[in-house]
Amino acid sequence: MAKSIDQRILTVQQLLKLPNISIPDYQRPYKWTEKNVTQLFQDIQAQQDKSAYRLGTIVLHRHTANDTPKLDIVDGQQRTLTLVLAVWAIIESREKAEPIRPDLDALLNDIKPTVETFLGRQNFGNAISQKNLHNNYLAIERIISRSEFSDETIEFLLNKCQVVVFELEN
User: Fold this and answer.
1) Percent of the chain with pLDDT over 90
2) Helix ranges restricted to H, 3-146
3) Nearest to 86 by CA among 18, 142, 160, 31
4) pLDDT at site 68
5) How many beta carbons lie within 10 A of that of residue 125, not counting itself?
């Protein structure tokens, strides 16, 4: 008998708080460029008046390695990494700024350890990935420093932007 596929809708905040999520070594390099990042943020800004906005689908492979549960990203790596970069850039920028929204800062501080662990666990040995991650992080820093990128945008990104997640066991 075939096992059912676990499907759920997660906000960006919920996605980034998933424990033990990783990009397996067999995945292709991170190839999104500044153009992709800009388009993602333009889409998010344009949809901000909606009650929710779907960013796409992510497929995870649930398994155990060395007695540790793992969630490998099978599909959606580019989008997930870009969201991780965005949230990391937001966290970093807010740590340097005066606190205006303690509730939002608390939310970001809650996500920070998982994002930090995720980034530390990944192996970005590919030169293409390294270049694109660096350039896209700088592009995200520019985008979030603009006046139109507000606390409401951050809140929308974390709580109203969603992904459909499929978890597979094999």
Assistant:
1) 76
2) 12-16, 34-46, 77-96, 102-121, 127-145
3) 142
4) 86
5) 9
Q: What is the largest distance, in Å, between two alpha-carbon atoms of the chain?
A: 57
pLDDT for 46: 95
pTM, two decimals, is 0.91
Q: Is 121 helix (H, G, I), strand (E, B) or coil?
A: helix
Tally of residues, the chain: 170
Measured CA distances, 63 to 4, 8, 13, 31, 124 (Å): 15, 18, 23, 26, 22
* Closest to 79 measured CA to CA, from 44, 104, 116, 103: 44
Rounded Cα–Cα distance for residues 170 and 162 (Å): 24
DSSP element (H, E) containing 54: strand 53-65
Residue ranges in the chain whose pLDDT is less than 50: 1
The tokens 């390099």 sit on which residue? 29
Which residue in the block uniquely carries the two structure tokens 């420093």? Answer: 145
Alpha-carbon dihedral sign for residues 139, 120, 29, 154: negative
